[in-house]
Amino acid sequence: MIINILAGGPMAYLPNLHDYEGSDSIWVGVDRGVFTLLSMGIKPIYAFGDFDSVSKEELEIVESEVHHLHKYLPEKDETDLELALKWSMKQSADKINIFGATGGRLDHFFANVQLLSQAFSDNVSCEMSIIDQKNVIFLKEAGTYTLPKLNDKKYISFLPLTSTIEKLTLQGFKYSLIDRNISIGSTLCISNELISNYGTYSFSGGILIVVRSQD
C-alpha cells in the first residue's frame, strides 16, 4: 500500500497528483490540503487538521465529503502534518509520499524535512519522501544504496541532517568521493550528477538528506 499525503503548501509547487493515483494507493488530506484534493477530483480517505486555513464554506464541503475526519484544536503540540504522518506510519504502508510540504513558510519546510527522521526512531521500514514539482527529498541512515539515473531529475545533492556524515563514498557520480566525513553546514555535495545509469553511495554514520532535483 502507498499512502499519499497532501499538506497545505502552495498549489504552484505541486506535481500532477493524478500521476500518483493507483489501486494500491490511498490519499490523506492535511488541513487545506483536504479541500485542494477535493477540488482536483481526488477524494481522501482520511483527513487531519485544525482547518484554520479554510473558510467556513470550504470546511462544510470537507465535512460532507470525508468520512474519516480527525479535527483538532489549533492549540496543540504537533503540526497537522505530523499528526497525519504519525497515523500513516502505523498503517504498514510500503511507501509514504508527502506533497504540499514545500514552498510557503520556511519554518514549516524545515520541520517537514525533519519529520522524515521519525521513521528511524519509530522503526518504520517504509520509504518516505517529500515530493514537489521539481524535487524529491528523502533521508537515509548509514548503509549502502543505489540510485538510478532519472532524466527528469538531473541533480543529486547530499546534505547532513546530523552533525556529521561519516565516510561518505560516491561511485558512478560526476564528482566522486571516498570515505569523506561531511559536517553539517558543508556544501561540498550539492548538485552532483550521475555519469552512468546507476550510482552508489555509502556512509558509516549519521543521517543523510538526499535531494533529487530538476534543472
TrEMBL record:
EC numbers for this chain: 2.7.6.2
Position of the signal peptide: none
Xref: Pfam families: TPK_B1_binding, TPK_catalytic
Record flagged with keyword Nucleotide-binding: yes
Keywords from the named record: ATP-binding, Kinase, Nucleotide-binding, Transferase
InterPro entries for the chain: Thi_PPkinase, Thiamin_PyroPKinase_B1-bd, TPK, TPK_B1-bd_sf, TPK_catalytic, TPK_catalytic_sf
GO annotation (BP), single: thiamine diphosphate biosynthetic process
Record's protein name: Thiamine diphosphokinase
Lineage: Bacteria, Bacillati, Bacillota, Bacilli, Bacillales
Gene from which the chain derives: thiN
